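Crash report, auto-generated. Payload:
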Amino acid sequence: MDSQVPISVREVVGLGARSPHKEIDHFLDNVGMKEYASHRFDELSGGQQQRVLIAKAIAAKPRVLILDEPTTGIDESSQAAFYQTLEQLQSQKITIIMVSHDIDAVLATVDRVICLNHRILYDGVPEAFETGQYLPDFYSAKHRQLHHNHKAGRYV
Amino acid sequence: MFEIFHYSFMVRALLAGLLVAVCVPVLGSFLVSRRYSLIADSLAHVSLAGVGAGLLFGGTPILVAIPVTVAGALLIEYLRQNKRISGEISLAILMSGGLAVAIVLATLSSSGTDFNSYLFGSITTTQDQDVVALLIGVVIILGIIAWNYRSLVHISFNEDSARIAGINVTGLNYLLAAMTAIMVVFSMRIVGGLLISALLVIPVVAAGRLSRSFIWCMIIAIVLAVIAIVTGLLFAFYAGIAAGGAIVLSALALFVLALLLGR
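Recovered output after restart:
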C-alpha cells in the first residue's frame, strides 16, 4: 500500500474482523498494541506492524495461525515482545505453525519442532533437539538452550 | 459575487463540479493507495478517442466515449493482472495510443473547437442532461463503493491478504477500473481530459498529509476537491480563464498548503 494514503492500526485490524469495529480494541489489547489504535500503520516499527498483523489475523477467530518467518527484519527487543504475544495466543488455544530460522526463539517457545531439509530430519520435542546434529555450524554456534514451558495451546 | 448564480450554465457547472468532487477523490483514494495514480490519465486519453469517434460519426461524444473508455480500463486491468505487460507500460501504451486515435479522428471530423472543449474542459457546454447523467453515475458508483468498502480497502492494503480472506479481488479490480473510466468521461466537460488525473490524485495526496486513517483521508480529500472545484470555477468565471486549469491550480495550492501544515 502506498504510504501517501494512510491507514490506521484500528482499520487494519478491522479488515480481519468478521464483524467490523467489534472487539477490535480487544484484539489489539491481546497483542499489546491497544494504545496505538489510532496511529498510522506505516509509522509503526517492523515489530509493532507484525503484532498488528497478528491482531488482524486473530480478529478472524482462527483455530490455526501459520506464520512464515514472522521476525525477519525485526530488531531483537521487538522480537522478544512478538514472541511474548505468540505465547499469550498459545494460552488461548490457538495452534501456531511457524516457519523460522531463528533457532533460539523456536526452541524457547514451541511444543514441537520439525526440522526440514528436503526431508524431515527431526520431529519431536524441543528439549531433545540437538542443533549440531541437524543444522550447519552457524546455527549451533548461536544456539542456547532456553527454559521452555508447555502451554495449553499447541505450538509447532 | 452571487451574480454567478444568475447564469444557468454556471449553476450547472457548479452542480456538476460538486458531484465530480464528491466521487473522484473516493475513487482516487483506492487508486493512489494501489500506486495506480496514472490510470486516470491513460483513461482520459482513451476517452478522447471515444470523443473523436463520436464527433466523426455524428454520435453523442460522451455516449461513445463511455464504452470505449470502459473497454480501455478493462484492458489495462487485464494486462496488469495477467502480468503480460507491467502496469506502467500498459498505462503508457493506452495513453499514447488513445491520444493518437483521438487526434486522427478529430482531424478527420474537422470539429476542432468541440474537441478542445473535451481536452481542456468547457463549463459553458455542460447541459442539464449532463448533470442528471452525472448525478445518476455518482450515486451508483458511491453505492457500489459503500457496499464493497471493506473489501476495497483490504485489496488496497494487501491484495494477497484480501484473496486469502476470500474477497473476489479480480472482479473488484475490474469494477474499480470500470467505475474510474465512467467518472473520467463524466468529468471531462468540467476539468478536461488532460487534467482529470490531477483531480483524482492531488486532493488524495494532500489529504494523506492531514490524516491518520483511510476513511478520514477520503473525507478530507472530498472537502479539498470541493474547495478546489468551487474556487477554480469562480476564478474561471471572473477571470475568464479555462476552468480545468483554474481547478487544478487551486488543487495544487491546497496541496502546497497541506505540505506545509501536514506531517
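Post-recovery validation: The longest helix of chain B spans residues 8-33.
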